[in-house]
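INFO batch 0412 | record 1 of 1 | parsing
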Amino acid sequence: MGKYYYPEGGLPPQTHLTTERAIVTEAYTVIPKGVLTDIVTSNLPGFSNTRAWIIARPISGFATTFSQLIVEIGPGGGAPKAEFEAGVEGVVFVVKGTLGLTLNGEVHTLKEGGYAYLAAGDEWGLENSSDDTASFHWVRKAYEPLPGYEAKSFVTSDTEVEPGEMPDVDGVWKTTRFVDPNDLAHDMHVNIVTFQPGGVIPFPETHVMEHGLYVLEGKAMYLLNNDWVEVEAGDFMWLRAFCPQACYAGGPGQFRYLLYKDVNRQVRLTGAPLPG
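INFO prediction complete | emitting tokens
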């Protein structure tokens, strides 16, 4: 296992207890790593030698603004065109192996920690030309255009972006922001949050942003609504808007998670188009 956790599938033996840590409520959901087996994967249209764990999608009582997939591409597999739905933006974050990303005719190499923001309307595809499997997270959202602003595709990596330290925490809580929070062209952020052992969110955050939270590394106690839930690398959490949240990083190593949130747009109350 490398720096980032990724599922490997398989199936527990018949002697395995069916008790797990999966939780589904109106305010939050926890999908533990132990339920990401072979039999819950999906094939994806346009992809070859590929399977995906779809861990979030818009349905009643669950995610409303995004979908999230963990995608595994075998040697020689991939898709010359990955996104078929008009108006959908995406983020790809590689957690294992190497992938070739063709974006508007230009080829980029994404290794572990590679990150790409893929603007709505841009043509892109992925290929695994290595001899090993590659795994990545794919976050998708319907882009909400804003007159005077345009989100542009870009490619970077976890190692190329300096994490920003939260104020007054002595370095125990940092966030790797791949997009400037003040850039109104972007209506979603997919960041990486890092806590050193013993670091905490010291109050129950209660806010309008919906969250998808995948634990890349480490373990913690996470407050979800009224419940303290123990989570570890490989677990996924969905939090509805205004679901209180906080955490204690448990150690012995750092606790890191990939975090989705919707941002920078007024609350839409009608179906009327925006002016301009």
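INFO post-check: The mean pLDDT is 96.
INFO record closed
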